[in-house]
Specification:
The structure holds two protein chains of two kinds. By secondary structure, chain A is of the alpha/beta class. Chain A has two domains: 3-218, Rossmann fold, CATH 3.40.50; 222-284, UreE, C-terminal domain (Alpha-Beta Plaits, 2-Layer Sandwich). Chain A has ten helices and 14 strands. Chain A has helices at residues 43-50, 94-101, 107-118, 133-145, 163-178, 190-193, 214-220, 232-241, 262-272, 286-299, and strands spanning 3-14, 17-28, 32-36, 60-63, 66-67, 79-82, 151-155, 182-187, 199-204, 207-213, 223-229, 246-249, 252-257, 277-282. In chain A, strand 12 and strand 13 form a beta hairpin. The longest helix of chain A has 16 residues, at 163-178. In chain B, strand 1 (132-133) and strand 2 form a beta hairpin. Chain B has one domain. Chain B is built from eleven helices and two strands, in the order ααααααββααααα. Chain B has helices at 2-14, 16-38, 45-50, 55-76, 80-84, 90-123, 138-164, 170-195, 211-216, 218-225, 229-253, and strands at residues 132-133, 136-137. Helices cover 76% and strands 2% of the residues of chain B. Chain B is mostly helical. Classes of the chains: A alpha/beta, B mainly alpha. Chains A and B meet through helix 2 of A and helix 1 and helix 5 of B. The structure holds adenosine-5'-triphosphate and magnesium ion. Magnesium ion binds at residues 43-44, 84, 155 of chain A.
C-alpha cells in the first residue's frame, strides 16, 4: 500500500536536550496508525514537526510525496489536526468554529454531517465558553475533520471524552479510514487504541522502540483468561498438576495462553478433576501490561 | 491570503467587543453633542468637531485593544496552531491580521467622521466649516488633523503589536497597550525638552508622536522637533515599518 505520510530520520533538539532521535515511520493511505508513548516521549513534538509548526534538526517529512517543513506548507492543504488541546475562541459558537475552518465547497453539508456523527447538535449553537472539557475536545476533533482531509493527526483525542463519545469517535475514525483517510493518533494508553489502530508505533525518549501491527502486538502479549469454578483452590491444584500455566491472583484463577491449546488443556484438566466451570472471561489489561513491559525494558 | 483575511474578519465580527466598542463610541459622541447643545459655552462646536466629539481618542483606544487582542488571543486560546498548520505561513497569518486592523481603523474613523458631520448639522446647523483655523479653512484643518492622528496611530499600533507578541494573555496585552498610550505621550513631552539640548535626539521615535501636531501647525512644532514636516512623516512611516518588522520576527520565533 502506498505511503501517504513518510517520516525519515527526524531529529529534534530543544536547547541542549535531544527530544527526537532519528524517527522513521510511514502512514499508508486509509490506515490508522497509533503513536503510543509515555509522557514526554515526543509524541506531540513529532506531530508538530509533521504539521510544519516547529523547525527540525534534520530528517525528512513528506505528505503525498511533497516535502513539509516550517517553510514548506503546500502539502498541508489536505491535513486536519488537533494538537495537545483544542484551540477554542470563547466568544464564538461551535458552529461558527466549524464555519471558520470548513472549505467553501459543500460547507453546510459537511458541517451538518460532522455535528451529527459527533453528537454535538444539542450545544453546537451555544457559545464555546460554556462548553465542558469533553465538548471542547469534540469540537476540536470536529474542526480537524470538517474540511474532509486526507490525513488526520489527532493528539490524545480521547482526553476528556465519556465512553459513548469514545465509541462514537472510534466509529468515525473507522468509517473515514475505510473511505481512504489516513490517521495518526497518539495516546499514552495502548489499550485505548486497540480497537481502532491498524498499526502501532511505540515511542520512548524520542526513539521508536517498536513498530508493528496492532494484531501482532495483541497476540505477542499473550491472552490471559480468568476461570471461575465452584472451588478455585482445588481447581488451582488440578491445573498445576496438569502443567497448565496458572496463577491464583486475588482469588482469581488466571490462565495465560501460550499457544492455542492452553485453554483447552485447562478445561480438560478441570473436567477430569470433576470441577464445574462457571465462567471463562478474557482479561482486559494484558495489552497495557505488554506496553509497560516494553517501555520498562527500554529503561533498563 | 483572501481566506485568511476573511477568517480574521469573521472572528472580529463575532467578537462582541467589536460592536460594543463601536456602539460605545457613537453613544459618547451623541452624549457630547447633547452637552454642546445644552451648554454651548463650555462645549464649543469647533473644539468638539476637531476632536470628533471625543470619537478620535476612542478610535485610538479601540484600535489599541483590537490590535493587542488580535495577536495575543491566538496564544491565549491556543488557536495559533490551527492557524499555522494549514497551508499558510506565519508571514501570511501576520499580514492578514495587519490588513484587517487597517480595515477596522479606517472603518472606525469613517464612522467617527460621519457622526461628527451629522451631529454638527443637528446641534449647530449654522456651524461655519470654512472659518479660519490654524491659518486655513476649518474643514482642511479637520482633515489634516485626522490624517495626522491616523498616521501617528499606525506608529502606536506597530508598538502595540510588537508588545502583544510577548504576552500570554489578551487582557495583559490590552492593559499594557493602554498604559503604553499614556506613557508614550508623557515620554514624548519629556524627550522633546532634551531635543533642545542634544539635537541628535530628535530622531528618536517619540518625536514622531508629534507628527500629527506638526502637520497642522508646522511653525510651532518645527521649533520643538527640529525636523521638517515631510521628514517627520517619512520617519513616522519608517518607524512603523521597523516596529512591525520586529513584531513579525518576534511572532515568527514564538513557540507554539
Ligand atoms: N518548546 C519546548 N521547549 C523545550 N522543551 C520542549 C518543548 N516542547 C517539548 N519539549 C520537551 O520535549 C519532550 C517531548 O515533549 P512532547 O510534548 O513531544 O511529549 P509527549 O510525548 O507529547 O508527552 P505527553 O504525553 O505528556 O503529551 C519533553 O521532554 C518536553 O519537555
Ligand atoms: Mg503531548
Amino acid at each position: 500500500m502506498e505511503a501517504l505520510l513518510k517520516v525519515s530520520g527526524l531529529n529534534k533538539t530543544f536547547g541542549k536536550k535531544k527530544v527526537l532521535h532519528g524517527v522513521d515511520f510511514t502512514v499508508a493511505s486509509g490506515h490508522v496508525v497509533g503513536l503510543v508513548g509515555p509522557n514526554g516521549a515526543g509524541k506531540s513534538t513529532i506531530m508538530k514537526a509533521i504539521l510544519g509548526l516547529i523547525p527540525t534538526d534534520g530528517g525528512q517529512i513528506q505528505i503525498a510525496d511533497q516535502p513539509v517543513s516550517i517553510t514548506k506548507h503546500q502539502a498541508l492543504r489536505h491535513v486536519g489536526a488537533l494538537i495537545e488541546y483544542p484551540g477554542i475562541y470563547p466568544f464564538m459558537t461551535g458552529r461558527q468554529h466549524l464555519n471558520l475552518f470548513a472549505a467553501k465547497k459543500q460547507r453546510k453539508q459537511h458541517i451538518a454531517h460532522i455535528i451529527q456523527v459527533m453528537g454535538m447538535a444539542s450545544y453546537i449553537d451555544k457559545p464555546a465558553k460554556s462548553y465542558s472539557l469533553g465538548m471542547k475536545q469534540k469540537l476540536g476533533i470536529a474542526q480537524a475533520l470538517v474540511d474532509q482531509p486526507q490525513l488526520v493527526i489527532l493528539d490524545e483525542p480521547m482526553n476528556g471524552l465519556d465512553p459513548q463519545a469514545v465509541k462514537d469517535l472510534r466509529d468515525i475514525i473507522r468509517t473515514q479510514a475505510k473511505a481512504g483517510t489516513s490517521f495518526l493518533i497518539s495516546s499514552h494508553i495502548l489499550s485505548e487504541l486497540e480497537k481502532v489502530a491498524d498499526d502501532v508505533l511505540i515511542l520512548n525518549h524520542g526513539h521508536i522502540i517498536q513498530q508493528s501491527t496492532m494484531q501482532a502486538l495483541v497476540e505477542a502479549g499473550g491472552t490471559t483468561y480468568i476461570v471461575q469454578t465452584v472451588n478455585d483452590r482445588e481447581a488451582f491444584a488440578a491445573l498445576q498438576a496438569a502443567h497448565v500455566p496458572v496463577n491464583l491472583v486475588d482469588r482469581q484463577l488466571q490462565i495465560t495462553q501460550t499457544d492455542r491449546t492452553t485453554l483447552n488443556a485447562a478445561l480438560i484438566a478441570l473436567v477430569h478433576a470433576g470441577i464445574a466451570v462457571q465462567d471463562v472471561t478474557k482479561a482486559q489489561h494484558d495489552l497495557e501490561q505488554s506496553f509497560l513491559d516494553l517501555v520498562e525494558q527500554e529503561v533498563h | 491570503m483572501g481566506t485568511l483575511i476573511k477568517q480574521e474578519l469573521y472572528k472580529l465580527n463575532h467578537k462582541k467587543g467589536t460592536w460594543f466598542a463601536l456602539l460605545f463610541m457613537v453613544v459618547v459622541q451623541i452624549g457630547f453633542a447633547v452637552l454642546s447643545w445644552r451648554y454651548p459655552k463650555f462645549f464649543g462646536t469647533q473644539m468638539l468637531v476637531m476632536n470628533n466629539y471625543i470619537g478620535g481618542v476612542l478610535v485610538d483606544f479601540i484600535m489599541i485593544a483590537s490590535a493587542a487582542s488580535m495577536i495575543a488571543m491566538e496564544f491565549q486560546y491556543g488557536t495559533i496552531k490551527q492557524l499555522l498548520y494549514r497551508k499558510y505561513y506565519r508571514s501570511q497569518v501576520f499580514v492578514s491580521k495587519l490588513i484587517v486592523l487597517l480595515m477596522q481603523m479606517i472603518g472606525l474613523q469613517v464612522v467617527a467622521t460621519a457622526m461628527t458631520g451629522g451631529l454638527t448639522m443637528v446641534v449647530n446647523p449654522k456651524f461655519d466649516w470654512t472659518q479660519t483655523a490654524n491659518a486655513m479653512p476649518l474643514w482642511r484643518d479637520y482633515l489634516l488633523t485626522t490624517g495626522g492622528s491616523m498616521l501617528v496611530m499606525l506608529l502606536l499600533l506597530s508598538l502595540v503589536i510588537l508588545m502583544a507578541t510577548w504576552f500570554k494573555t489578551n487582557a495583559a496585552a490590552i492593559a499594557c497597550g493602554f498604559i503604553g498610550y499614556f506613557v508614550t505621550a508623557v515620554a514624548a513631552q519629556i524627550i522633546i525638552m532634551f531635543v533642545q539640548r542634544w539635537h541628535w535626539l530628535k530622531w528618536n521615535p517619540f518625536t514622531m508622536l508629534l507628527t500629527g501636531n506638526q502637520i497642522v501647525d508646522p511653525k510651532t512644532y518645527h521649533a520643538l522637533t527640529m525636523l521638517d514636516t515631510p521628514v517627520m512623516i517619512g520617519c513616522t512611516l519608517g518607524y512603523t515599518v521597523l516596529f512591525t518588522l520586529i513584531a513579525y520576527l518576534s511572532f515568527r520565533r514564538r513557540a507554539v
